[in-house]
Specification:
It is built from 23 helices and 13 strands. The chain has about 475 residues and is of the alpha/beta class. The radius of gyration is 23 Å and the shape is globular.
Length: about 475
């Protein structure tokens, strides 16, 4: 079947978006593919349409539960019933059922950790898959080496099994990250499609403060007088909670979001935001990946992100409807030191390496370090992975190198933040591309008129009506 016929048949669309057809054609030619397509450009259609044409199950490795659930729900809205998510939301009984009938599903979503479970791998080895997808593939480079080493094990499994083509999807990635993806996943001479990383409808603001305390006042006044929906990014869970409380007291429909909440709570908050029941999310960088909300008008960073990749991913959540949106980066002296502290806070140290080895020499379990509170669960997971791969001295050198790379990434972000030239051109250049055209209200350095982008929030919108439950029930019963 021709792709132009398959597209309207399965999805009702008449034309492909840039990159979709090229990626699908490569998959159908059984090529491995790395596709960099901006969020909102229909990345998921690349594997969904391929799955329908191939008429074989598609395995999608997804990094976050919320992202996985969103993708499952999207497919169900299109009428697809043969879709399943293998994740921690399933009960033991549900998981057994899903595994038993796994070959009958058309789309199988799972996490890197679930994929590596022996019973899951055994079942998958019995199924003739049509395609394997690694969604948000930049996580391999950004998380795999120092946060979720199971991402690195995915490639080991790929190299041990007879597999179909692999599609690695992401919104943004540098040349180094693309190489990490290809090497880690053991891709075979992959076809690469790189879309322009610039989002001209996102206008780049920047505000510098002499005093950190002035930031809080600026944020409160700005959010009170301008329209959302928006995301305010903070560097810690504690600060997210504090800002959320201040905004709620100011009458803003707001919720905090961070990894300290349970999966179901995070899913509920995200859905409230998507449904328009919340105007602002006050979050750590745990929020936003894969969120399907096209009308986000503002992204504010209270402090400097740890690297340019994170910044581009986070501001890219705004304006997916093509309408004007604004990303405002706030800065005060010392923000870069905070960023360096945060990004290396969970890295194991040379002392942890020696302690791990000491316990092994005493024939004790290194997991005692975790039980004793000597390091975090994330740090132990990373330490345990690398000490099973390399020598003590190699691991020490690797950890030092990881810390240096993180420091350099913060310095790159600071350089772009403090440039006197066009901020947009600098960001695009970081990803190895060249800015083709500057939009109106381009950035702080080129000139930006906030009042042309930020709509003033109407007084009526600020009021949160407290309707008695009897009145709400009466409205529901009467169909109002």
């Amino acid at each position: 079947m021709e792709l132009e016929q398959a597209l309207p048949k399965y999805f009702g669309y008449t034309t492909f978006r840039p990159g979709q057809k090229e990626v699908i054609e490569a998959i159908l030619q059984e090529k491995d593919v790395i596709a960099l397509l901006p969020t909102g450009m229909g990345k998921s259609l690349c594997y969904q349409l391929s799955g329908y044409i191939l008429q074989k199950p598609v395995l999608i490795v997804s990094p976050l539960l919320s992202l996985m659930q969103d993708q499952v729900e999207e497919l169900k809205r299109f009428g697809e019933k043969r879709v399943v998510a293998l994740n921690s939301f399933l009960t033991i009984t549900e998981k057994r059922y899903a595994l038993h009938f796994l070959e009958q599903y058309r789309f199988i979503f799972t996490s890197p950790e679930m994929l590596l479970q022996p019973q899951v791998q055994e079942k998958l080895s019995q199924i003739k898959l049509g395609l394997i997808v690694v969604d948000e593939a930049h996580c391999i480079s950004q998380w795999g080496f120092d946060f979720r080493p199971d991402y690195l094990r995915i490639g080991q499994w790929f190299s041990q099994v007879s597999r179909p083509p692999v599609l690695a999807l992401s919104a943004t990635a540098t040349e180094k990250v693309v190489k990490d993806i290809s090497k880690t996943l053991s891709l075979n001479n992959p076809f690469e499609f790189m879309y322009d990383v610039d989002r001209p409808n996102i206008h780049l603001g920047r505000v510098t403060f002499e005093d950190k305390a002035d930031k809080a006042q600026w944020i409160l006044q700005h959010i009170k007088k301008t329209a959302g929906p928006g995301i305010l990014y903070l560097s810690s869970r504690k600060r997210a909670e504090q800002y959320c409380e201040v905004l709620i007291q100011a009458g803003i429909r707001t919720a905090a979001y961070h990894a300290g909440y349970g999966a179901e709570d995070r899913q509920f908050i995200q859905q409230q935001f998507i449904d328009g029941e919340l105007d602002w999310i006050v979050a750590t960088n745990a929020f936003g990946m894969g969120i399907n909300k096209p009308d986000i008008r503002q992204i504010i960073h209270e402090t400097m992100p740890a690297n340019v990749e994170n910044y581009m991913q986070e501001i890219g959540r705004a304006g997916r409807d093509g309408q004007p949106a604004i990303a405002i980066l706030l800065y005060s002296e010392g923000d870069e030191e905070l960023a360096k502290f945060v990004v290396t806070g969970d890295l194991p140290t040379s002392g942890h390496v020696e302690r791990y080895q000491e316990l092994l020499n005493q024939r004790l379990q290194p997991s005692q370090m975790l039980k004793n509170g000597e390091l975090s669960e994330t740090a132990f997971r990373v330490l345990n992975f690398w000490l099973q791969q390399e020598s003590v001295e190699q691991v020490k050198a690797r950890l030092n190198q990881l810390a240096l790379e993180k420091y350099r990434a913060v310095d790159e972000m600071k350089k772009i933040n403090q440039t006197k030239d066009c901020i947009r051109a600098q960001l695009v250049g970081y990803f190895g591309q060249k800015l083709q055209k500057k939009p109106e209200n381009c950035c702080e350095n080129c000139g930006i008129h906030y009042d042309e982008i930020n709509k003033v929030r109407l007084e009526e919108e600020r009021k949160i009506e407290m309707i008695p439950w009897e009145s709400r029930l009466k409205q529901l019963l009467m169909g109002n």
